Structure formats: C-alpha cells, structure tokens
Amino acid sequence: MNSMPTPPTAYDETAKGPGLSGLLEILRRRRMLAVLPFLFVLTAAVSLAVFLPSLWTARSLVLVNRQAIPERYVTPTVQADIEARLLTLSQEILTPERLTQIARQYGLYRNARSTDDLVDRMRKDIRIELMDQREQRGRESRSFLFTVSYTAANPVVAARVANTLSSLYIEENGRQREQAAASTSEFLGTQLRDLREKLQTQERQITAYKEKNLGELPEQKDVNLRTLERLQQQLQLAHENNRRATERRQMLTNALGEIDTTVPSTVSPSAAGPSVTPADTAAARLNLLRQELAMTQTRFSDRYPDVVQLKEQIRVLEAKVEAEKQAAAALPKAVAGPKRVGRDLRVPPENAYVASLMTQLDQATVEAKTSAEEIRGINGQIAFYTRRLENTPKHEQELAILTRDYDTSKELFKSLLTKRGEADMASELELRQKGENFRVIEPARLPERPAGPNRFRLLLVGLALALGASGAAVVLAEQVDTSFRRVDEIRSTLPLPVLSAIPRITTEQDRVRTLRQRRWATAAVGFGLVVVAGTSFVIAHDNQGLVTLLTPSAPQTATTSGR
Fold it and tell me: What is the pLDDT of residues 210-262, one digit of tens each?
C-alpha cells in the first residue's frame, strides 16, 4: 500500500504566498474596509482645506537712515546696533496696553478669552524682520532695511495694522533718541554743576592753605634760599663791622687811659694842656666801660668772663675817680681849674685832642652797639627763614595732595565739559531730525494672495493620508483574520488531504439580508461622513492658529517678533 504524499508545511520553502490574483481577491473581499478609512480621511482633509480661513500678510518696508552729519563731527548718544535697537523698540511698542488699543481700534480678536490671550495672539501675528545685507544691494550702503508685517484674516485690516505698527516704530525711535540725548545732556549738566562746586571748594582750600603758610610754600623755597644767603652775607658783614668798631673803641679807650697815666696829678693844668685833669680822663673812661658793660650784658650772662672783667675794671676805676675828685676838691679853686659837676663825665671842649678822642670813642661805641643789634636782628631773621625752609617739605607734601586732587577734578571737569558740548550738539541734532531715523519707503499694501493655508498641498497630504489609512486597515484586518479562504492555504497549513472545495451557497433570504445590511451601512457611512465634515467645519472655522500651524515658515534673517 502506497503511503500518501506529505503536504508542505507552513515552513516549506515551496509554499508561496498569494500572487496578484490573491491581492485582488483580498481587495475584493476587504473593499468596504479599504473604502471607509479612505473616505473618512479624505473627507476630513477636503473639509479642512475648504473651511480653513485664509490668512493675509501685509508688509511695510522701513529704511534706517544713518546720521546725516558725519560722526567724527557729532557723536550720537545712541550707538547700539540695529538689532538691539529693534529689540528695544519692540519691547516698548508691543506692550499689552498698546496692543489692546490697536486691537480695539481695528476690531481684532473679538473671540479672545482674555486680554492676555489677545496680546499673545497679536504678538504671534506681528513679525519684525531685518533684511539680509545681500538683499540690500543697490541701496544705500550706510542704511539698513527692516520689514514690519502683520497677519490677519482680512487683507485690509492686515495692511492698516502693518502701517500703524510702522508709524509706531518711527515715532518711538525718534522719542527714544530725543529722550536719550536730553537725558545724557541733563546728566552731564548735573555732573558739571557738582564738579564745579567741588572745584571751587578745592580752590578755596588751596588758597586758604597758601595764605596760612605764606612764606613756607614750595614755590617760595628759592626766594627763601636767596634771602637766607643774603642774610648770611649781611651777618658776616655785621660781624666784621662789630669787630672793627670794638677794636677801634678798645684802641680809643687805651689812648684815653694812656693820657690818664701820663699826666700826673701834681702837674698844674697849664703843663698838661688846658682843662685836662686825671679825674676827667678817668671819668670818661668809666663812662665808656659802663657802656661796654651794658652792651655786653645784652649778649652774655653776668657770669661770662668778659662781663666779670668789665665789672672789675669799672669797680677799680670808680674808686680811682672818687679819689681824684677828693684830691681835686682839696686844692685851691684857682689851681683846681674850672668848677666841675661830679656827674659830668665829659671832657670839656677846651681840650681839642681829648674831645676828639671822646667823640671818636662815642662813635665807635654807637657803631659797636648798632652792629651788635644788627647781628641780633640778622640772627633772628636767619632763624625765621631757616624755620621756613625746614617746614617747606611738609607743606610741599600736603600741598601736593591738595593740588593733585584739584588737578584730577579739573581734568575731569574739562572732559565733562567737552562731553556736555557733544551731548548738546547731539540733542540739537535729534531735534532737527538730522540724526539716525526711520522712514517708510514702502507702506503696506493689500496682499495679492493669501499667506496660508496652501489648500492644494493640504489636499495632497490628505489624499496620501487617506490611501495610507486604507492600506493600513486592510493589512491589519488580514493579519488579525486567521480563517482559510483558499484551498492552497489549507494544504499549506494542515497535514490533511483536501478532498473537495464546496463554494458558498447563497439563498434568497441571504441576498435580502445582505441588501438590507448594505443599505444600513451606506446610510451609516453617509452619516459618518457628514459628521466628519461638520467636525472639520467646527475645527477649521476661523481657526487662524491652525492655519499658522499648517503654513510652513519661510527662512528668515535677523528677526524680532512676538512669536
């Protein structure tokens, strides 16, 4: 008995999947499952493409004019780059207060839930773009261009809002520049006033210090040195004069002493000359010694040797004069000569020689006394100017500190004065509109075509998604379904022989039931499509955010935006 052939298993390499006929059979069998996802997805895509609102973007082109006067003549007070300037201006312009005012003026975002929602949506619809330098070829090289754009569902409103925003940027730029120039000028003016008061205070301090220490200042050092040198010379000359006067007085005193010793007291007056007596000579010498003692005591103490010696000489001479007076009183008046007064110590003028010696002695005494007083005065002046010179370094250091602070303040004052002048010129430049300014060269016009959405692209994407959904549904259904549809599937899977294949037997009752099911299915599908279309309408109607999301953004350069 022959054994039955073993059918190929599921893992047999000879078992092959369904071919083109099999795929067509699957599509025929799963046609409703393939059509339904396709219809629903395509209906949603078409509904969105139809019901989404059109968004219109209007752009205003603004030129940034550079300063008309070269900066080497007038330095502007605002020197930030254009990107930073636009960012600062946007922060001032795109405030909730201004945006709310513009929205109320043009009736924007009436369905906004709150003011914050309105401001956020409006900021997303505003875009400030700085044009690339490559796009500015053929224009002024010293200028920049930027665009102010606004996106809205109404093209007229979009153009009006874009022009309004451009005007706000121009006005705010001018206001900020004028305010910056005025603030700079005012600040520098305040600094100048404070620094001027400080300078005046420092000047008063320096003047008071110089007046208080007049004569001991560094600039008077040379004068003090020359004066001290001159005083040294005067002191040397005064010492020389004093020495000569002292020597001459000593010589005259010795001469008078010699006259006193050479004329004896017993000699008659006629022999020694008229009116010459030893008492007169001794009295004159005593007078000179007393004058010398008085002058010496002004310079030295009583224990000084010269003072002690002079006192001893005066004591001896006083005793001698007293003895001479007593001897002269005992003689007859005729012999004794003219009457003398005990206190008259001068030599009578009848003796010319003695009188001349006495006169010269008086002159020498006066000269010695005068020179001594001059020496004392010069020594005092030397000590005075020496103290001045000794105090000069200390005053030089203190004055250097005051002067250094004053010079620093003075240089700062000059610098601030120059900057104040530049700030005033810059302020005048801004007031005359000669500084950097914005100017609209292309105002926003009505856009010719909407910025979004791209309905054709949306339809293509919807068609692709519908086909993908249809194919995915069929594949998923085939993977889940484990029933056998063909004889070869049974043969390739089960190790049992297949005797015969019985086709599906359809009765009249089955056909009626199938027709009724198809009608209900068609109605359900139609209702589902209507629901999908209605839902798409609700989602897409006036949904600018969805349009913005579905609209691809163009590549941008430097941009300042609320987005």
Answer: 888 888 888 888 998 999 899 999 899 888 888 888 888 888 887 777 765 55
Task: Give dist(CA 88, CA 68) in Å, integer.
Answer: 23
Nearest to 84 by CA among 185, 182, 173: 173
Distance, in Å, from the CA atom of 149 to the CA atom of 49, rounded to the nearest integer, reads 25
pLDDT band at residue 274 using 50, 70 and 90 as cut-offs: very low
Dihedral-angle region of residue 76 (phi above 0 means left; psi in -120 to 50 means alpha; beta otherwise): beta
The answer to whether residue 543 sits within a structural domain is: yes
State whether 458 and 383 are in the same domain. Answer: no
Q: Structurally, how many domains does the chain consist of?
A: 2
Helix axes of 352-431 and 278-297: crossing angle, nearest 10 degrees = 20
Q: Which residue has the tokens 């003549």?
A: 73
Cα dihedral 545, 550, 553, 559, rounded to 10, equals 10
Nearest-angstrom CA–CA distance, 409 and 562: 48
Asked if residues 354 and 256 have their Cβ atoms less than 8 Å apart, the reply is: yes
Q: Of 85 and 285, which is predicted with more confidence?
A: 85
Region class of 327: left (phi > 0), else alpha (psi between -120 and 50), else beta: alpha
329, two tokens: 């009183």
- Residue 438 sits at the vertex; the CA angle it makes with 435 and 442, to the nearest 5 degrees, is 145
CA angle 171, 92, 100 (to 5 degrees): 95
Torsion of CA 240, 243, 248, 249, to 10 degrees: 140
In a domain, 167, yes or no: no
CA dist 559 and 59 (Å) reads 14
* pTM of the predicted model as reported, rounded to 2 decimal places: 0.55
Helix (H, G, I), strand (E, B) or coil at 71: coil
pLDDT of residue 178: 80
The contacts of residue 431 (CB under 8 Å, 6+ apart) are: 178
> Residue type for 103, please?
A
Same domain membership, residue 480 and residue 356 = no
The answer to whether residues 56 and 150 touch, using CB atoms and an 8 Å cutoff, is no
| CA separation for the pair 97, 103 (Å, rounded) | 10
